[in-house]
Amino acid sequence: MEHKSVRETVVSNWTNDVLPSLSGLVAIPALSPAFDSEWAKTGHLAAAVEHVRSWIAARGIPGATLEVVELEGRSPLLVVDIPATSEAAEKGTVLMYGHLDKQPPVGGWSEGLDPWTPVIRDGRLYGRGAVDDGYSGYAATTAIEAVRAAGGEHSRAVVLLETGEESGSPDLPAYVEHLKEKLGEVSLVVCLDAGGTDYKRLWLTTSLRGMLHVNVTVKVLESAQHSGMASGIVASSFRVLRVLLDRIENAETGEIKLAELSVDIPENRVDEARGVVEIAPGAAKTLFPVVGRTVSDDDLELLLNNSWRPTLSVIGAEGFPLPADAGNVLRDSTTLTLSFRLPPTADAKAAMEAVRRVLTTDVPYDASVELGDFQAENGWNAPDTAPWLDEILHHVSGEVFGAPHKSYGMGGSIPFMGLLGEKYPDAQFVVTGACGPDSNIHVPDEWLNIDFAQRVTEAVAHILDAHARS
């Protein structure tokens, strides 16, 4: 395809059509089900789906069909089915993935900004869900339109937009099974829920960590007691929980002690990490507003820690009063929410059983331990890149970005990729996106780099055409 034609279509669509509608999507408080237990009643997820469905339907893509699928008790899914161009009918299905649900708003947005008020300023679109991941459906559709406008080819494309990704995609396995006949043979997966460490090049994510989530409650008393009267006789529930956590994590280094949660890192992924360090030495230390120092001074070790080593974060707690309300009380129980990130090739279920075992065996003082809300999701490691994909990636990197593309492992999780990797082992994967190092996903002042999102869209258009001609 002629690059100028593709670029003109992409820029025109983004300027005139995408940004106004995407801004409207930002304004919808479509919290993921994990953060809105009344999501079916509030209707925000349904509103987000309808907003995007109406926009895509109005594009008038020949032969396209749109369906909102909603299995009983599960959050809705938007499926857009676009037939292949005339020369690509036998090339299988391109599955293009994104999500419409959002993280909570979180306080502390800068003056003039708000999670549900879209603001375009200095080439940025601010608002919750702008980059994670509201733009994805628009980018996928625009890429297809750009291929057609430039006289290119694309195989059958199914755009799948879910509404539970921020909750760990619990409904996706059921939907994939429900839609397996409709999806057919998937030969290419394009995921637009990722990004990289700068806005200068196309970034490909080659691995994603798995995840393990559990609430653990330690109870030592039937009811709270005066701390002066009971301490020294009754153990602190927090101390018991701390002892249990020390079985899992080295508190000084953060190293996870359980063998089931670790793997040998493939040498090609180590080489990729070295390549990222070479183009951006020191960048890993400045990605986040760290108070103090990062856990290592070695850039390579930081990247490997983030992409191929297990970690534990305590992301929630219950049973603690606010400091202003804290009396001299020995609390009856402590609950912590543990969030583990697992190496891409670790067995999440084996990891879950290992964590369960160490938290419930030989508990100090025979305290009561209850585990709840267990979630375990495998990670994903990309297959080897096919020659046609390798060729087009080098081509678009030069023509669209003017810089070589880079691959790396992302520390986050997209459960759908692991599921698709198992179901379609022969498919090629392009996991990319418009997220940058300072896009503020999940935190205040989330923003989308509009120019970068346009270039990612342009690159995807060329990849679709190359796949159809491979």
TrEMBL record:
- Which GO-annotated molecular functions does the record name? metal ion binding; peptidase activity
Work out whether the entry's keyword set contains Transferase. Answer: no
Identify the SUPFAM superfamilies for this entry: Zn-dependent exopeptidases
Matches recorded under Gene3D superfamilies: 3.30.70.360, Zn peptidases (3.40.630.10)
Q: Tell me which domain of life the UniProt entry assigns to the organism this sequence originates from.
A: Bacteria
Q: Which GO terms describe its biological process?
A: proteolysis
Keyword Translocase present in the record's keywords: the answer is: no
UniProt KW keywords = Hydrolase, Metal-binding, Protease
InterPro entries in UniProt: Cyt/Met_Dipeptidase, Peptidase_M20, Peptidase_M20_dimer
Q: Boundaries of each Peptidase M20 dimerisation domain copy?
A: 207-362
Please name the PANTHER family in this protein's record: BETA-ALA-HIS DIPEPTIDASE, CARNOSINE DIPEPTIDASE 2, ISOFORM A
The protein in question is named Peptidase M20
